[in-house]
Amino acid sequence: MPRPRARAARRRMKRVVVTGVGAICALGHTASDTWQALAAGRSGAGPLDVPERETVRIANAAQVRGFDTAAHFDGKAVELLDRFAQFGLVAGREAVRDARVTWDAALRSRTAIVTGSAAGGQASIERVFEDLWRQGRSRVPVLTIPRFMPSAVASHLAMAFGVTGPTFTCSTACASANHAIGQAFWMVRTGQVDMAIAGGSEAPFSLGHLKAWEAMRVVARDTCRPFSLGRDGMILGEGGAMLVLEPADAALARGAPIHAELAGFGMSADAHHITQPHPEGAARAITAALQDAGVAPAAVGYVNAHGTGTTANDAMEAAAIRLAFGPHADRLAVSSTKSMHGHALGAAGALEAVATVLALRHGLLPPTANYVGRDPECDLDVIPNEPRHTQAEVALSNSFAFGGLNAVLAFRRWDGSAA
Q1: Choosing from 174, 224, 278, 341, which is the catalytic residue?
Q2: For the chain, which ranges sit under pLDDT 50?
Q3: How far apart are CA 243 and CA 396, in angstroms?
């Protein structure tokens, strides 16, 4: 039982809700399009489309196709924006529109922007290296650093909306977006800010980055099959997703749409290995998120898994879920939407947070696509191939990164009351 002081502190904290979502990924250029694909169990993976594809042994990827930069940015703006930053801005603009935010000076000064990215502007920095080392040029474009710095998205979102509150970026490999959303959530819940825009973006399809993943030997030969027999790796993805967070009472007062409640956040470190995950570390983050939300394990109905499709990760995550939930793990619905939008690295947690929020709102759990058979090491209900019409009350979104950095978000279906 919580101690009296802890209960009193919890009563002083605000309930935090998600009032806006935005997304762009291989499944679609908006959150609505992305959700429709997720709800249909449709994969966005296809043949890798990069100029150097003949030199890369990665066959398939979940890329954002048909993206018209000119439809979103003028020529002058594009000079400042790497592809990863473009995705972050597109998603952020959509989330703010969805939340129906009306800006004034007070709100701008009391809004936080927290973004996540593992790689930053890879394409921009590689272009500079090519100019220097292959083309023999002695100078680089003056805006090179502003284009590739991982914090570019946070800065451009702040400028786009005139936000002057806390603005920063988290870079914790594949947990970057969950760490960003969690930090933003805590700031809103404790009253440090009145609103937050949080999420992540990534665009990893540059030659050097692809060759680095090729060397890791964790990319699937054909497609991503999380938790499935015969899985052999991940499918790289790209894109961005953002959430608007605000206190429930403020959202209700202004008549904002409410998608779900963000109720808790938990973090941990494995302190074990730089690339091999450990179930005890992941389980600690799950338990921390539940405790932060004041939610019993038995109340959770759905887990959006990290679920990369690699042999090591999926078995580890299944074990972590069993450690954290005990016998309730047999009644949990678990799925990996990476089977459809790919592993978008620092943006993955943001895309999965949007998927989890919309699953709670619509009463439909997205499936684990490409599943071909049960693996005894992943003995969970993984919603194979077909979506499930089930109303979960509480859902988790897991992110477990290289280096053993774990971040878990706990969402609750919105009950219509700020009490």
Answers
A1: 174
A2: 1
A3: 16
